[in-house]
Write a structure and sequence with these properties.
By secondary structure, the chain is mainly β. It has two helices and ten strands, in the order ααββββββββββ. The chain has helices spanning 2-16, 29-35; strands spanning 37-45, 55-56, 60-61, 69-73, 78-83, 91-99, 104-109, 123-128, 134-143, 146-156. Residues 1-22 form the signal peptide.
């Protein structure tokens, strides 16, 4: 009898400690509507940027994202991004995105012809300092065992 009670107690604890995922929380429609439109990344900053190179979104060096253009469509969570900086590889892609109630920005970069549900990998960044003309997306990266913030500063275009 004691074993059954112990087993029941352990199973209740396992289900009570269920973690939540960034993709399973509700969306923040107010934050999403504020992001609607065309944006440009004005700067990318992080401690040690003069010594450490960051490959942003597994696409290009973070400096190549300065001046990149982003379009966010809030009613269907789609958009586009394009890297056009001189001296960097040109890149353009459709994206899907949303902001959850925890201010997490969830992004998927889509390859040509691929639907979002077929893309299994994406990025989770924190949305910060959002105004009608600017916002920041903050990515956490590991630099020599220390978590470091990479801040992408967006300006309304």
């Amino acid at each position: 009898m004691k074993k059954i009670i112990l087993l029941c107690a352990l199973s209740v604890l396992m289900f009570a400690c269920k973690s939540t995922s960034a993709t399973s929380t509700n969306i923040d429609s107010k934050a999403q509507i504020a992001m609607k439109g065309n944006w440009v990344i004005g700067s990318v900053s992080y401690p040690g940027s003069q010594y450490v190179k960051v490959n942003s979104f597994q696409i290009a060096d973070s400096e190549c994202f300065v001046g990149s253009t982003w379009k966010f469509v809030s009613n269907n969570n789609k958009g586009t991004m394009a890297l056009t900086k001189a001296g960097c590889t040109s890149f353009s892609s459709p994206i899907t995105w949303f902001v959850n109630k925890d201010k997490q920005f969830v992004l998927k970069v889509l390859n040509a012809g691929l639907k979002a549900k077929k893309v299994k990998e994406g990025y989770i960044l924190m949305l910060a300092n959002q105004t009608s003309t600017s916002f920041q997306l903050i990515d956490k990266i590991d630099v020599a065992g220390k978590m470091t913030d990479v801040v992408y500063q967006f300006q309304k275009n």
